[in-house]
Amino acid sequence: MLVDACLAGREATDAMQDLIYADDVMSVEAFPMGPDGPAVQGLVAVRGKSEFWYTNHDIHAMSAVGPFVNGDRFTVIFNMDVTAKAGPMGGQRMQGSEIALYTTANGKVVCEEFFSPPMA
Would the pTM of this model clear 0.85, i.e. be above it? Predict the structure, then answer.
């Protein structure tokens, strides 16, 4: 469900988060994502981070592999081809991958963590 929603775009991702994310979910990026830095807490803040990402990138292609499950955690590998609209990478097309680790409790995602290769 999560993988399909992420691949379907912004509206599907928002609906999926409402359904399976805890209200106090924690989200931790490998690098700062917008003005709030790398970590945010709460569904509203996660939505804001997601909105920032969609607003600031043109998505040319996205794929996902997974989920890979282990108990109350699962990972997904995301591959993306995007062009940044603003900031220091503005106008640059980039291809990259990240691994997302999701932790669940009581049937809800309580933490999402994103792992990326080191930046040069």
Answer: yes
